[in-house]
Design brief:
The protein contains eight helices and five strands, in the order H-H-H-H-E-E-H-E-E-H-E-H-H. By secondary structure, the protein is of the alpha+beta class. The protein folds into two domains: 1-51; 76-240, Glutaredoxin (3-Layer(aba) Sandwich), CATH 3.40.30.
Length: 248
């Protein structure tokens, strides 16, 4: 006994007919693919089933965070956040920030990546209505008047009505800012609505060539609701920050 192969459709027609059918089928498939590609390019709201990432850098942070790459690219290419980054840098300079990180806790400027306990002492004193005085820590207040009012246009976590405002001026490539980031994040988590944590850009161009680009990229990520996720990732591994990593 043996298994007999049943004859299929192409076994029952001539070789010429089979060739014609295959040719017509191939033309239809190619035409359909071309139509979909054209439709995708001309209609922002339409994408091929495999998404819009194939033409972009799969190793970029934007891709890893699953951002809409077409929108992210358009945002970066527009240079729309150049002015904002410049304005925040100028605000920090006017407020006495000369290096990073520079963190205002209300009117007190904390220069450098101090440990959690120092910030906690300052915050607790403010909340208790007590004078802020920490031995060995210089806390100038003369530049506080140059700070702008925190608004919903800023990048912040917490309540705008919080009694304590942490206004951070930072550089994404600064190693000290990388140390300060988890400290400020923990303070935000621990104090909840008692503090508002505001991030402002202070790229030190002469020291960190990709910091300014990272700031603009983070703002573009913010348009898709991922400013803080993008920021966490940048500080999570600063060694990855290159022009390719912060681009598309």
């Amino acid at each position: 006994m043996f298994d007999e192969k049943k004859k299929g459709f192409f076994d029952l027609i001539s070789a010429k007919s089979a060739f014609i059918i295959g040719l017509v089928g191939g033309i239809l498939i190619v035409g359909t693919i071309g139509f979909l590609v054209t439709l995708t390019g001309n209609s922002p709201g339409i994408a091929l089933p495999f998404g819009d990432k194939t033409e972009y850098n799969q190793n970029s942070l934007a891709s890893k965070l699953d951002l809409k790459m077409k929108d992210f690219k358009e945002c970066l290419d527009s240079d729309k956040y150049v002015e904002k980054v410049n304005a925040e840098f100028q605000e920090g300079s006017s407020a006495g920030v000369t290096g990073t990180p520079g963190v205002y806790v209300n009117e007190y400027l904390v220069r450098g990546a101090y440990p959690y306990e120092v910030f906690k002492q300052i915050i607790d004193s403010i909340l208790a209505g007590e004078e802020v005085n920490i031995e060995g820590v210089d806390l100038p207040t003369t530049g506080a008047s140059a700070l702008k009012e925190v608004t919903s246009d800023d990048n912040y976590i917490g309540s705008l009505d919080a009694p304590v405002k942490l206004i951070e001026f930072s550089d994404y490539q600064c190693p000290y800012c990388g140390r300060a980031h988890p400290t400020l994040k923990k303070l935000s988590e621990d104090y909840g609505d008692q503090i508002v944590w505001v991030y402002k850009h202070y790229p030190l161009d002469q020291l960190h060539p990709y910091a300014r680009g990272a700031s603009e990229a983070a703002e573009c990520a913010g348009e898709q609701g991922k400013f803080w996720e993008y920021t966490d990732a940048l500080y999570g591994d600063q060694n990855l920050i290159t022009s390719e990593y912060i681009s598309y």
